[in-house]
Amino acid sequence: MSALAALTLVSQIWAGLSASDRPDETAASAALDALPAAPAPSLHIGRPEHLASGRYLSRWTIVRTRTIARTEPVATSSPVASLATATPDRTPNALTVLRTTTDAAGQLWVKVRLPVLPNGTVAWVRRHSLGAYQTVSTHLVVDRQRLRATLHRNGRLVFTAPVGVGTDSWPTPAGSFLIRSELTRYASAFYGPVAFGMSARSAVLTDWPGGGFVGIHGTNEPRLIPGRISHGCVRMRNSDILRLAKLMPVGTPVTIR
Predict the structure, then answer these.
(1) What is the per-residue pLDDT for 180?
(2) pLDDT digits (tens, 9 = 90+) for 95-144
(3) Which of 39, 153, 180, 212 could form a cystine bridge with 94, CB 3.0-4.6 A?
(4) CB-based burial of residue 64 (10 Å sphere; 0-12 exposed, 13-18 middle, 19+ buried)?
(5) Mean pLDDT of all residues belonging to the chain
(6) What does each C-alpha distance from 109 to 89, 120, 155 come to in angstroms?
(7) 54-135: CATH class
(8) Which residue spans of the chain are classified as CATH 2.30.30.40?
(9) Beta strands in 169-217 (DSSP E)
């Protein structure tokens, strides 16, 4: 019998007795003290904690089924690009989520930034063609003038390092992009220990394998960094990109300026 049920029973018995029949209060109190303690609650509510500000959060998703991105959130609007489920590197095709809306038929559409030329192209994709939303609080900035990359988390600087960028003939493209993949175990030391695939594409090397996508990777020539040394990719010293790999998840937005 629980402590509450026992207390209720004692109260009912007490109420039904006359004053002369009621037991001594001291004895009743002792009987209650002898009851087993109530079990600890199974649910424990801890102290409240502050959540991270939504100001620094960004959303991304992957293409779950092959689909067509369109100019407007309408099934009859003009196509912009065909989106596959995988990148040329055989990793999930990740997209930045910008906003959502519902069409007249009740279908949900998502506005995304596309990995196509010209860089910065946006379009609408049906929600059912995409995977679950993911969020990150990191943001990488590559400054082509200062030849430096900086990573922020929740608005706070957590990483900075010098970089190599594209030459005048093969420039690193400017704009807003997305870290779509993290790749390791390259056969060639040219790419260093880690490479990040981005949604950025070269506007001058479109005939390169995979369509001229631009990445961030290590190097076997650290003496050239910082500098304007690449065909568009962002290069880092191997020690720096290994540090970055511990701090920057896939889905991080990238600003190249």
Answers:
(1) 96
(2) 999 999 999 999 999 999 999 999 999 999 999 999 999 999 999 999 99
(3) 180
(4) middle
(5) 87
(6) 27, 19, 29
(7) mainly beta
(8) 54-135
(9) 175-184, 194-201, 213-217
Residues in the chain, overall count: 257
Provide the 3-class DSSP secondary structure of residue 20.
coil
CATH 2.40.440.10 range(s) for the chain read 138-256
First to last CA, the chain: 72
CATH class of 138-256: mainly beta
pLDDT at 11: 53
The full 3-state SS of 60-98, as one line of letters, equals: EEEECCCEEEECCCCCCCCEEEEECCECCCCCECEEEEE
Handedness of CA 231, 198, 66, 97 (dihedral sign): negative
Q: The tokens of 233 are what?
A: 């990719």
Q: Report whether pLDDT(3) > 60.
A: no
Angle, helix 25-33 to helix 3-16, in steps of 10 degrees: 160
- CA dist list (Å): 127 to 26, 181, 236: 70, 22, 37
- 3-state SS, residue 180: strand
